[in-house]
Task: structure prediction
Amino acid sequence: MANTNTVITTWRENMQFHSTNPAGELIIDASPEDGGNGDGLRPKALMLSALAGCSGLDVASMIKKMKLEVEDFKIDITAELTDEHPKYYHKVSVDYHFYGKSLEEKKLQRAVDLSVEKYCGVMEMFRRFAEMTINTHYHNS
Result:
C-alpha cells in the first residue's frame, strides 16, 4: 500500500483556515493586502518552511551519525515568484549556514549533498518546477 498523509484544512472565517498535520496544527491566513487579517502562516511561504525542514532534518541526522561538532546550523531560503498567475516559485536559493569552532567542511558538504541529491523529497518536488541554487557557508568561530 502507498504511503499517504492526510491533512484536513477547515475554513474558520474571512480568509483564515485551521489545518491539521499528522503532528500538530496551524493557522493559515492571507495578508491584509490580500484580504486577510495576517494572523496565520502564508501557504507559499509554508512550502519554503517545508523545504528547509525536510533538508534540515536530513542534515541534522547526518551531523549526528557522523558525530560532527556543529554549534549552530540554519537554512536561509529566498524564492522568486513568477509574475503571471498562477504565481509559483520559479527560482529558489537555499543557503546552508554552519557555525562552530572546528567545522569539518568536507563532511558537512557531503551531508548537504546527500540531502539535496538523494534524501529530501521536498527538494525533489521543488526541482520539478523551480531552478534551484544551493550554497553552503561555514562560519568558523
